[in-house]
Write a structure and sequence with these properties.
alpha+beta, Alpha-Beta Plaits, four-stranded antiparallel β-sheet
Length: 114
């Protein structure tokens, strides 16, 4: 099992992405509102360290938050889920789209693997 984490800055993709997951028999996601560090700093009028200055141009001030999606999946469904995300978003190599990663899970309780 693995935990697939998707931090989706382009939240307009969320519904389509989750529906496509269901069509491919992947279910059981938890979706949370989330906000990135640079967005929080910019909202608090705190001057970030100079290393973050160039990142301001990538911040979309009209976007209130991102969506963070957590999915515990069997290993064989990870590649399918990742391909769905890439298909819907066009990939995370575009600036300000989001990030995606997996974490191995050695123990889980309270979930049913379908």
């Amino acid at each position: 099992m693995q935990l697939l984490v998707i931090i989706l800055n382009k939240t307009e993709y969320l519904s389509q992405m989750l529906n496509c997951m269901l069509e491919r028999n992947i279910c059981g996601a938890t979706v949370l509102d989330s906000t990135g560090m640079i967005k929080v700093i910019s909202e608090q009028s705190i001057e970030p360290p100079s290393i973050f200055g160039s990142l301001r141009e990538f911040i979309n001030p009209s976007r209130e938050s991102s969506k963070t999606v957590f999915m515990v999946l069997p290993d064989e469904k990870i590649e399918i889920a990742k391909s769905v995300v890439k298909e819907i978003t066009g990939g995370f190599d575009k600036p300000n789209t989001g990030i995606m990663f997996t974490i191995p899970i050695s123990y889980a309780e309270g979930i049913k693997m379908v």
